[in-house]
Amino acid sequence: DEAHRAAQAQGVDLSAYQRFLYLFPYQACIGAPGSATVGGNPSLTWVNGSFGLRTLAHEFGHNLGLGHSYAQRADGTFIDYGDPLDVMGTPGVVGHFSPPQKEQLGWLDGDMQMVDTDGDYQITPYSHAQQVVPHVLKILKATSESGLRSWYYLSVRQPSVFDNPTLSTHTQSGIVIHTGSEDPHVPNALIDLTPATATFKDPALGVGQSFIDTKAGLTCMHLEVGPNGARVRIRFWTVLPPVVLPPVVVPPPILPSLPDQGMTLTTDKTTYVLPTAVTAPLRGGVAGQAIQF
Length: 293
Description:
With 293 residues, this protein is an alpha+beta fold. The chain has 5 helices and 17 strands. The chain has helices spanning 2-9, 53-63, 99-105, 169-172, 276-279; strands spanning 19-24, 34-36, 43-48, 70-72, 78-79, 112-114, 119-123, 136-143, 149-155, 176-181, 189-191, 210-213, 218-226, 229-236, 264-266, 271-273, 291-292. The strands form 4 sheets. The protein has a 7-stranded mixed sheet with strand order 5-4-11-10-9-8-6, covered by helices on one side. It has a 4-stranded antiparallel sheet with strand order 7-14-13-12, with no helix packed on it. The termini are far apart.
């Protein structure tokens, strides 16, 4: 409030502004380098002595309406702040917003290609300015029972001044895959395609490797990569529902009714009494003696 009053005393019309950014020296009692409202009009950001690009871009992302960028382990677990390629992810990282984040902001219009047919597709490095070849491929992942869709986003990351200049060699040589959903309760996430390691800094699909989703009927094979982008082969296939066979019931054997009692024949579930006349030839059986089957 004091900042507002000071600005108004200088003749500033605050009603003309939709975003307010408050910067002040570090306060140990606050701790966090910054905090912000998610959206809002006006939106608000507080910066606690940390005036670098990471803090300012991260908090401004919240002002634009973005949440954190997650990573997803092979077991499906989501890790908050897990994406090491996105300024909304891993602390300390300075990188472009991830594809699902940019799509939310409307920043990928005309720069993202929807893929729903088989073919080989080119992807331009995410930070390159040219738009002849798309920067992102978007592929349907699933549709929930309530009709909300989720998607795969394929991109190629190359280091630049404003996009992770310290990208790992592994990431530069592969294709990275994010997921996004129309369900606001499901976070966007970077898929960890190297689950054998404990880090998310090597998430890419290498040349010659394939990503396969058996539920979606989808295969993405990385064919080649270079400074100007990558080429990926997309194949769709029909997912057949599981075959459920009806249970087979085998009735117990039915023997004819015989009047006179003789030897007893016992199966696992049923005992039959046969007449003396037909029991004598049975493996040397003696009339009235039980035989187990």
